[in-house]
Amino acid sequence: MATPLSDSSLSPLKTIAVVGLGTMGTGIAEVLAKAGREVVGIDISEAQVVRCVAALESSTARAVERGRLTEEERAQALARVRTSTDLGAAADADLVIEVAPESYEIKQQIFRELDGIVRPETVLATGTNALSVTRLAADSARPERVLGLHFFNPAPAMRLVEVVSSVLTAPQAVAAVTDLAIELGKEPVAVGDRPGFVADGLLFGYLNQAAAMYEAKYASREDIDAAMRLGCGLPMGPLALLDLIGIDTARTVLDAMYAASRDRLHAPAPILKQLSEAGLTGRKAGRGFYTYEAPGSAVVVPDALTPRDGEHLTPGRPVRSVGVAGSGTMASGIAEVFAKAGYEVVLAARSAEKAQAAKARIGKSLSRSVDKGRLTAEAAAGTLDRITPAGSYDAFADVDLAVEAVAEDLEVKRQLFAALDKVCKPGAVLATTTSSLPVVACARATSRPRDVIGMHFFNPAPAMKLVEVVRTVLTADDVHSTVREVCVKIRKHAVDCGDRAGFIVNALLFPYLNNAIKMVQDHYASLDDIDAAMKLGGGYPMGPFELLDVVGLDVSLAIEKVLHREFRDPGLAPAPLLEHLVAAGCLGRKTGRGFREYARR
Prior knowledge:
Protein name: NAD(P)-binding domain-containing protein
CATH superfamily of the largest domain: NAD(P)-binding Rossmann-like Domain
Structural class: alpha/beta
Domain 3-hydroxyacyl-CoA dehydrogenase NAD binding: 15-193, 322-499
Domain 3-hydroxyacyl-CoA dehydrogenase C-terminal: 196-292, 502-598
InterPro entries: 3-OHacyl-CoA_DH_NAD-bd (IPR006176), 3HC_DH_C (IPR006108), 6-PGluconate_DH-like_C_sf (IPR008927), 6PGD_dom2 (IPR013328), NAD(P)-bd_dom_sf (IPR036291)
Family: Belongs to the 3-hydroxyacyl-CoA dehydrogenase family.
CATH topology of the largest domain: Rossmann fold
């Protein structure tokens, strides 16, 4: 019979057993030992125990070299760790953290054995990120003592810890491990029991879609990864991250998520199964989406899929002058980028006043760059002199490249392209900066669809390095080459993709944002906990709700509707909560209220 809980029955968590001494278990043991806990490291493999001890000695020695530990502190931390191959060594533990392989059979066997070993008041925690904590708890003799304690890799560096409660978990057990996490210098986030919890629940859906995008040959692995690093500020691209996590591990997590959600976005992309079964599981195997110098190495080496220099052999068209259509933030930012690179720029708007105002905005931007020491006053003046404002698109008669950055409305863009078709000289390249509309629809509004291409800049254009180069089925090879060459001259990183909704970045970003909204809508986790989880556990520069409020909820909803309409996947349907907020006029920072409230300026 399970021992009833009382507030006084929980011992302080001073002695902690870690079962499973792989990378994660070793990292957790290090964190605990440094924080003054007595640690019992247990693994059935003697070789793994030896590797764990060696890794602890090595990592603490590095900490001393870097001034993060004294030699005395290192010796004390190592002395607090004892190891064993016998689960019976956990007998005196106040807390047991299990980080064995992601298998119900293995974990249930460990929990059944622990029932006969540990004291009645000992808390049992599983480090799973994919399996049901409730199912593991239900098989235990004391389910009220079982919970999830999900650290992130590498445990010494990553601050997030997800504390996972099942319907059976006692509040005192949750409180005890939450307090422990804080004492370890971690930031605990309370979540319920569902596959992936918060961070992995959002992360793995995104990784799965990236794998499917690559499998469909929509974009190269290098371009997918560069797009998400440069377009979203992520520390790693999704395919490189899958290689780091382990493709077999990702497949296991996604299988568990799909079994629970039946959301097609969680159904593992077939390529994950193919790579796993071929033993190409990522860095640990020396090959996954990329090829590595050796198993376990982080150094990527060229292989048959690596792009070769000079791959784009078709010469581009000469570009000396550029026309930018529009007067908003994006148009003025793009005009600034081209002028800084030495191009003569015509900045045209619907009126001379709007064009002059856009040029004035560029002048202020350049002045800020001068104030910050990024630009000399002479260079700023020269840049501004290269921009000619115009109140009519007739001023584009002699430009070699026309880039439109007007409202994200297909009919508005079609009318503009029809006008550019009449004004621009033969051979001029016509580009749209659309982020979600079909480029081919703009092309078909002209008599020269071969000359039309997408150049999707990111906001703010002077700062963001990425440009998505979007070819339609009608775009000429030399037009594509022209834009690639121009991107080099304006110091932007170009990635190639086809003409479908969302291109690379938005097609991967917005389903992730939508799934975050669904978590809040379902009362699974709070805005603050989800934002913290993705920043601390995923390395994201902003949490999803911070980002949604910056982008604008109306803009986000429009993009999600486009994605849902094109791909017809029920999982892409915009979350009703987002639709309700937009209908209420809560559009984010620009209106003072979105998912959060903001002080009016």
